């Protein structure tokens, strides 16, 4: 029995050594990619400085996504599969920060008597919203990522995600083609809800943050409950 364990251990170490030897030096590839990125940045900078800013922000955003593993799909999927809600809570914190920031921006325009930016993007709540949410939710779980997660994984070299990106584009084009029918049939007949119109600016923000806080507490308790169960 002991001899068999020794043989198994030697085979495992041999496989491990083989796998280590198969690793390639990726520094030259990284240097080439960096040179391409820098070259594109210089080219965009000569064309227009704003394009260079967009390029740098896109790179920073992609780097942040990759290092944090931030993904909306994972925020919805992980509580069921792994019982972890760390990404879920991270998304909720992001929602809270953006709620405060956008409220401040919109209120600044409001008190100065200017047109509030983004009001045309307030979407009506209708059956179309529920259908679209379910379709997108099912699709992104099957694909293994939302739009940001798919792009991030393509950048990491998961080329199967290219298939997801292709059909993501196909679905977006199909949706844009049929959008007029959805708008005439459902959206124009549905109410638009802007919380400051009903609760005031402060009231709308407080209610929004309270909803986020309640979901955050539930998510934390969910993870704690299942982690305690596993520890016992």
- Write down the overall mean pLDDT: 81
Helix content: over 70%
Biggest β-sheet, characterized?
Answer: none
Strand percent estimate: under 5%
Q: What is the H/E order?
A: HHHHHHHHH
Helix and strand arrangement:
Elements: H1 2-22, H2 27-47, H3 49-68, H4 72-81, H5 86-111, H6 127-143, H7 147-156, H8 161-185, H9 195-231
Helix pairs in contact: 2-3, 4-5, 5-9, 7-8
Fold and architecture overview:
With 232 residues, the chain is mostly helical. The chain folds into two domains: 1-68; 69-231, no CATH class. It is globular and about 65 Å long. The longest helix has 37 residues, at 195-231. The chain contains nine helices and no strands. Helix 4 packs antiparallel against helix 5. The protein has helices at residues 2-22, 27-47, 49-68, 72-81, 86-111, 127-143, 147-156, 161-185, 195-231.
